[in-house]
Amino acid sequence: MRLHVGCAMWTHTPWQGRFLPHPLPPGERLRSYATWCDAVEGNTTFYATPTRNTVESWAGQTTPDFRFVVKLPKSITHERRLTDVDEELRSFLEAIEPLGPRAHALWIQLPGSFAPTDLGTLAGFLRRLPRSHRYAVEVRHRAFFDDARSERLLESVLARVDAEWVPFDTTTFFQSPPTSDAEREAWMKKPRVPRRSSALTDRPIIRYLGRDDTARTIEGWRHWIVTVTEWLREGRSPTVFIHTPDNADALMLARRFHEEVRSGLPELEPLPEPAPIEPAESAEPLTLF
């Protein structure tokens, strides 16, 4: 019984010297992060396909059961909108090959303008993908959440290739106006869609956005604690990514989420113990409150 948890990145300035040793050379940062969490979102690949040497370094810093959910480049999903992308896709798949089993799912995040009328394009793209990988699709067009027929059609397209629908739950974040610069920036950029909590496969993936107030973040994920616990009891193996607008406490919050699920499921395999560091005298204590 495995629950994997992680964050949107494995290196973040507010974590240095607080959660993770500082300084750390680039080739050791992911290794240190992986003592805290056993999954990470591969957001950097959205902006550029990494070199094979870079990906080999990622693999070398993690164990085979570590999970990368790797985002397809925006040139494929946003610029070409899944059409005429064979060369870009081939280059991307070759680059990430060194991850091996660590590439838990290839993440197809679609733009908000990608509508139900585009489902034929998505279906054709998914059919052409190699079956050597798992796939997960994130949509942001409101019709997929508000219109039952559009929802069913998308689920049908995904089910044909055993792909997962990745929800980005921002409902807690949008419950009240922003109170910090990071929250104000996120307010303008993050999708405002209803919560979705149905799994299509045995490996669901959740992205949850809380607030910079850690207590509000924890209160807002109660629904997911229940849902993830149910999935685990059904034999599924979920991956949950915890976000906040500034992500300052995201690393600790991800572990807190895992601990809350495990408190109700003691048989759940625990996370590894974080690598110890000696905090500076002026550093804040490692507490959420």
Q: Could you characterize what this model shows?
A:
Helix 5 runs parallel beside helix 7 (148-159) and helix 10 packs across helix 11 (250-264). It is built from eleven helices and nine strands. The chain has one domain (4-264): Protein of unknown function UPF0759 (TIM Barrel, Alpha-Beta Barrel), CATH 3.20.20. Helices cover 36% and strands 13% of the residues. Residues 279-289 have low confidence and may be disordered. A nine-stranded parallel sheet has the order 6-5-4-3-2-1-9-8-7. Strand 7 (168-169), helix 8 and strand 8 form a beta-alpha-beta unit. The protein has helices spanning 26-33, 52-60, 74-79, 86-96, 119-128, 143-146, 148-159, 181-189, 214-220, 222-233, 250-264; strands at 4-7, 39-42, 67-71, 103-109, 135-138, 164-165, 168-169, 205-209, 239-243. The protein has 289 residues and is α/β, with parallel strands linked by helices. The longest helix is centred in the C-terminal third of the chain and has 15 residues, at 250-264.
Mean pLDDT, to the nearest integer, reads 94
The coarse silhouette is globular
How large a portion of the residues is in β-strands, by DSSP E?
5-15%
Low-confidence stretches: 279-289
CATH topology, by name, is TIM Barrel
Query: What order do the helices and strands follow?
Result: EHEHEHHEHEHHEEHEHHEH
